[in-house]
Amino acid sequence: MILSKGLHIALAHALGLIQNDNQPATIMINPRLYDEGMLQRDHPADLLDSWIARRGAPVCVGMDPVFQRLPAAFQNLDPASAFEMWGRTFLDAIEPHVPAVKFQSACFERHGVAGMAALAKLLAHARGKFLVILDGKRGDIGISTQHYAAAVVEHFPADWVTANAYLGADGFLPFLQAGLGVFALVRTSNASGDLLQSARLHDGRTVSQSVADVVAAAGGEFVGACGFSALGAVVGATKSVDAKQLRQRMPRAPFLVPGFGAQGGGIADALQCFIHGRGALITASRSVMQAFENRDGEWSQHVAAAAKVFAAEISTGLHAQGTSATSPS
User: Fold this and answer.
1) Do residues 122 and 63 make contact, with C-beta atoms less than 8 angstroms apart?
2) Active site residue 244
3) Please, what are the domains in the chain?
């Protein structure tokens, strides 16, 4: 979808960013995604779809570095420097096999200014080689969320972000308005999330289903040419029964699916998140990042091999189901 200037202004009104025609509020525009005429160059969902088609597997590798678990060659450096040096080689190793990479912001934030500088440099290194997701799971409203969106646009270049949907649409709309794709938390893979997300409302829906309905309704305003929205959902692979139901409630939302592999989610679980072989991005982190442990030889070769196996496993599962990541909807 290409946003016309009129539609963009209409959306700005809907988001409360313009109070009246004579007094517009400050609107954060992502210069990488909009041209001077306010036309969107690359819709986030179309960009996601094209990257998956290019690499042939709907998978994402997470970068969740822990200094103590980096290869021995980096242990004599300070954490931020180690992350940057390791990260460049890691990204280059997995590039041929996966379309997307997800940076866990917390892993870099804990190392202060130097850690965040390393994150920014690695995000820039990944641009043009992958679809880039910044995983910060921001949860706020109003001007604070606008600040978070501005930080991504101005300092931490990414195509998609993660955000907390449990504050309502106010928690994710500013990211969308800035031209970013958003994976909103709907059904997470952590066990303690069940206490909240599986609770029943008076109308019989679970809490996660009610959040899914919010995401589906809001996302309808941001659908790309590929048929999917710039507003997606985080749905854990370990919650396959819920995932199947949530897919029915959010047919246009791309799913970001954590929990595969080391966290216990299997191929059958992951397949519940697709619709006609499309619309989901399965993530793995530790199973790829730590593939070198207890093995001889160059660490990056083990990482590359693990990324290749991961991509092949998901692709094979989709083909066995009679679909593929590039199947028409």
Assistant:
1) yes
2) no
3) 5-320 (3.20.20.70)
